[in-house]
Amino acid sequence: MLGDRTSLAMAVMATIYLAGLFIIGHNFNSALVRSLVLNEENKRLLATREQEVLLRTADLQTANADLEREINERKSVETHLREARAEAEQANLAKSRFLAAASHDLRQPLQSMFLFSASLHHHVLDKKGVESLTRIERGLDILKGLLDSLLDLSRLDVSAMEPNLVMFPLRPMLEETVAAYGRVAASKGIELKCGELAHCVVRSDQMMLGRMVRNLLENALRYTEHGRILVSCHTGGGMARIDIADTGIGIPTNQLERIFEEFHQVGNPERDKAQGLGLGLAIVQRLSRILDHPVAVRSQMGAGSTFSITLPVAADVAVEATATAKWEVADTGAGRRVAVIDDDPMVLLALTGILEQWGYGVTMAGSRDEALRRLRPDAAPHLIVADYRLRDGRIGTEVIRSIRAACGAEIPSIVLTGETGHECVSEAESVGALVLHKPVTPHDLAFALKRLTGNDTARTLCQD
């Protein structure tokens, strides 16, 4: 009985063991099957992902190639644009340099024509002759304006001009500028006068600012047929504002920005050259940027326009509120002696002729050495008028220094120049001489002479 029980127990245990093995085997087999299925799925997924990666890589390579090609094309285009821009700039600079270099030669014949035409007034007396002479002078004025505008613009194009910033009283400059254009305004029946002019000292380049004011004044004269032009100056907040107001034709609202473009003109579709080239305001804007003096304009059609220049007032500078004389241009030399030096025979003869008609005694010379030889201790000059460029590389300021040294006195002087650079102006400033840019009109010359002699400066400055 005991053996049977033992056998039964072993049989049960064997059955349980076998059942356990079966269950374990079954579970292992199921796990193995699942693992194989997952492995296949992973393989398929990996293959799919690898294919997608390959496709994406191919797309990226294609896109990269396209991008590189586009970049190369852009670089090529940019290179061509830079080369074209450089060529255009070089061509523009070459044009500007030509105009600047040729300015002296262009101005010389026009200079002599101005002076000779003025000399004819004493010889042409009949009505028809006077009318013809007036037309000639009007044509010369137009030609001078065109030449001045072209050469001024070329000077601004040649290089970045550096302003010579100095402190100076603004009121005298404005009064003298208005006085200089008085006859032109009177000939058109326009009242040109100064309004309220604040006494202030400003910091600017006097030559550039003067050019801006003259261009705006000339623009007002060109577009005003009747009424008046008023020049005024106000200060506030450490700034000065110059206003040039006219009662002209006005400017349409849609052209207020375009008027500062080169060659743009209001009301001149026929391009009448008597109205200029349309460069005056373009020059004003360029000078405004160089000096950092903003220019503004207000206008009403049929009522007129007001142009304004804003510039800084020099700090801590006291200005004495004294009346400034309004220059009346006189054409009499009152026996004063003038030394005239110019290496161009035609200009020399023209200058001598007009000065002698105005009552000056003239000593003319074509060079520094000739001028020194002709100096007479008992009849030394009261004034010197010298061309800037002379023979043998000499310049007019050298002549001025030499004559002053020979006379032992600071003789008032004028330098005439056909050049557009700063060199001449700086040289003239070093000797305290006025600069007149050719072609100089008889009115400009007379005005400059009056400016030098108006305050009792006309006297014998050299002693025996």
Shape: elongated
Strand content: 15-25%
How many helices in DSSP terms?
11
Strand-and-helix sequence, N→C? HHEHHEEHEEHEEEHEHEHEHEH
CATH class of one domain: Alpha Beta
What's this model, at a glance?
This protein has 464 residues and is of the alpha/beta class. It is 54% helix and 15% strand. It has a domain at 165-312: Histidine kinase-like ATPase, C-terminal domain (Heat Shock Protein 90, 2-Layer Sandwich).
List keywords for this structure.
single chain; elongated; Heat Shock Protein 90; 54% helix; alpha/beta; 464 residues; 11 helices; 5-stranded parallel β-sheet; 12 strands
Describe this structure in words.
By secondary structure, the protein is of the alpha/beta class. It has eleven helices and twelve strands. It is 54% helix and 15% strand. Strand 10, helix 9 (396-407) and strand 11 form a beta-alpha-beta unit. The termini are far apart.
Write the layout of secondary structure elements.
Elements: H1 2-119, H2 127-158, E1 166-169, H3 170-180, H4 182-187, E2 191-197, E3 201-204, H5 206-222, E4 228-236, E5 239-246, H6 280-291, E6 295-300, E7 304-312, E8 337-341, H7 345-357, E9 361-365, H8 368-374, E10 383-387, H9 396-407, E11 413-417, H10 422-430, E12 434-437, H11 442-453
Parallel strand pairs: 2-4, 8-9, 8-10, 10-11, 11-12
Antiparallel strand pairs: 1-3, 4-5, 5-7, 6-7
Helix pairs in contact: 1-2, 1-7, 2-6, 3-5, 5-6, 8-9
